[in-house]
Write a structure and sequence with these properties.
Mean pLDDT: 97
Distance between the termini: 40 Å
Strand order of the largest sheet: 1-2-3-4-5-6-7-8
Bound molecules: 3-methyl-2-oxobutanoic acid
Oligomer: single chain
Radius of gyration: 17 Å
Strand content: 5-15%
């Protein structure tokens, strides 16, 4: 039997310098194929609001939606580590956050991902104390698209970059098990990774981190509209979805993805 991937596995990968691959998944069939391809982490991302439900952003996604898709993915027979997103406005108080995270864990998640920065420190500690591993999603946080003024690269200027580095260190101190960086300059991601001991996962953050993640629909060439710069269509040179998943896993673990053209 394949050994289940755990947070400890990701820590080992970090310390041995072996990158790991992560992919969003929303249903049992795709989760099974991704697991068979060797992908280590499956994220039930609130991107499902856009790629499955047809919304213009992730804001309309509810906790019930996340629970439903987490249960679907968790039913797949895989060794993958399952991470689930806390959707928009389900973390307004510690009590609400603990309840929402508890329901996602009971639905099959092993790790909870929350968007935010240093202000999340108390919440991260409250979850960690109760046995919930937390991955904090920083940089371009899609739930804040209205505040950010669009889906843009974050941390280009020195002040913002320094603040993000500081925040990542605070969150690690607070008990975060991993940090996910979306759409940040490669050099900033490398600085943050260097300053931390926990695994750092990147999407549009360059190759100098521990793991890579993509939205499944994007890497299968099923993006509606123009795909972001950091996306590679792995279906373009594959005969099947399983082949595309294997190609992605192989490209990440051999550090051939992301290439310079996918970086900021
Ligand atoms: O919701 C999602 O799919 C995500 C990824 C972009 C990392 O958060």
């Amino acid at each position: 039997m394949t050994r289940p991937i755990t947070i400890q596995t990701l820590n080992e990968r970090r310390s041995t310098g072996q990158p790991f691959s992560c992919l969003t998944a929303y249903d049992a069939t795709m989760a099974t194929l991704a697991g068979e391809a060797g992908i280590e982490v499956l994220l039930i991302g609130d991107s499902l609001g856009m790629v499955l439900q047809g919304h213009a952003s992730t804001l309309p996604v509810t906790l019930d939606d996340m629970i439903y898709h987490t249960r679907c993915v968790a039913r797949a027979d895989t060794a993958c580590l399952i991470m689930a997103d806390l959707p928009f406005m389900t973390n307004t108080t510690t009590t609400q956050t603990l309840r929402a995270a508890g329901l996602l864990m009971q639905s099959g998640a092993h790790v909870i991902k929350i968007e935010g920065e240093a202000w999340l420190a108390e919440t991260v500690t409250a979850l960690a104390h109760r046995g919930v591993p937390v991955c904090v999603h920083m940089g371009l946080t899609p739930q804040s698209v209205n505040a950010l003024g669009g889906y843009r690269v974050q941390g280009r200027d020195t002040g913002r970059a320094d603040a993000m580095l500081e925040a990542a260190m605070t969150l690690e101190q607070a008990g975060a098990s991993a940090i996910l960086l979306e759409c940040v300059p490669r050099a900033l991601a490398a600085r943050i990774r260097e300053a931390l001991a926990v695994p750092v996962i990147g999407i549009g953050a360059g190759p100098d981190v521990d793991g890579q993640i993509l939205v499944m629909h994007d890497m299968l060439g099923a993006t509606t509209g123009r795909p972001p710069k950091f996306v590679k269509n792995f279906m373009a040179e594959s005969d099947s979805i399983s082949d595309a998943f294997r190609a992605y896993h192989e490209a990440v673990t051999t550090r051939r993805f992301p290439a310079p053209e996918h970086c900021f």
